[in-house]
């Protein structure tokens, strides 16, 4: 993994790392925190679209493009809702199929911190 990969997925210098994964997941999947995190993630999606940019330091290995944050249409909850995808990705599966699923609270928190300066706590 590159240092950019590690900065998204394995940061331990944040308050979220002081809480067990189970406690953190329980906390952020409560209705109010989940709603706030969803709004913040959607704001990042909107900002990336308006600025025509992706998430720094994380690229598609096929096209070399920065990956962009996307929201799954039929998600079953906060931890099934977001993924990073190549700019060549298309919903009808005719484009680049490279995606990185954001399935843990730490992944969401690290992305939020990278994009907005503040994680989930």
User: How many runs of DSSP E, i.e. beta strands?
Assistant: 4
Q: What spatial form do the alpha-carbon principal axes imply?
A: globular
How large a portion of the residues is in β-strands, by DSSP E?
15-25%
Strand order of the largest sheet: 1-2-3-4
Number of helices: 4
Average pLDDT, to the nearest integer?
88
Task: Return the string of H and E elements.
Answer: HHHEEEEH
The helix content is 25-40%
Could you tell me how far the N terminus lies from the C terminus, measured between alpha carbons in angstroms?
26 Å
Query: What is the radius of gyration computed over CA atoms, rounded to a whole number of angstroms?
Result: 14 Å
Please state the oligomeric state of the protein chains shown. Answer: single chain
Poorly predicted runs: none
Largest sheet: 4 strands, antiparallel
Secondary-structure-derived class: alpha+beta
Describe this protein's structure.
The protein is of the alpha+beta class and 121 residues long. It contains 4 helices and 4 strands; from the N terminus they run αααββββα. It has helices at 3-9, 21-28, 31-51, 105-116, and strands spanning 55-59, 66-71, 82-85, 99-102. The chain has a 4-stranded antiparallel beta sheet. It is globular. The model has no long low-confidence stretch (mean pLDDT 88).
What would you say about this model in short?
This protein is α+β, with helices and mostly antiparallel strands and 121 residues long. The protein has helices spanning 3-9, 21-28, 31-51, 105-116, and strands at residues 55-59, 66-71, 82-85, 99-102.
